[in-house]
Give the backbone structure.
Amino acid sequence: ITARRADWGGVDAYLRYREPWIAGTPLSAEIRIAQSVPESSWVNREGELLLIWSMPALDVSAGAGQWRGYPPSAPRQTYSYGIVGLSARPGSRVPQGWQGAEVDLEVDMGRATMSDTTEEETYASAELTGRGDLYLGWLGLGGRVVAGGVLEGEWIPGRLRRMGGAEDLRGYAERSFRAGRYAVAGPELSLGETETRFFVFSDLGAVETEEGWRWPASLGVGFRGRSGLFRVETALGFPVRQGLDAGRVYLQAVAEVL
């Protein structure tokens, strides 16, 4: 469960619940409910239901979802869709953390109604996220990638990915870009003999917005580790073209209870 107040009012909220091992089988059911406020007086709401079959180091999922956008002074936007996904986690746990790869791919496709037309049209999008780490004693080489966007259909303004911040472009303000298509690579070099590690990073992006392509890039340093049930990460990043005075600090704390 996450909840965050938007700068212009309203609350961005997300709930995900998974019921594992239904009837003693590797089948799980997952529900996702979300609300976002991309702009003042604009609310989006979404619900998804998925079935997930788990295998060693691999999950396969399929389901359906409904999305509704309520922009100010415009008709409602709608999107009804099916979802398929793959989640792979090859590797093993070592004293420094997870050594290997973590890859998630999700594709959705369905029928959408945009604010400027009453006719339905086919719409499809996809997102790939991944992370890889290799530890050579106290030295760690790793990084993350996120890529995706609209595959077919007219862009739905309320569904464009809001980019910037700790999840993709560290050093940039949250929601700096509203992307229809995007790719971000974040190589890292870390130091430490356990899961408590210092690291340096760079986030390099290619982002297609409604105004055209943008090429954000940032550099930074950070620290991550564990304390009891909590996994903590903090980082300082700054956009390459804006200098050190534009730097931003991030702090994330996640409780892992299972």
About this structure: The first strand starts at residue 2 and ends at 5. The two ends are 15 Å apart (CA to CA). DSSP finds no helices and 17 strands in the chain.
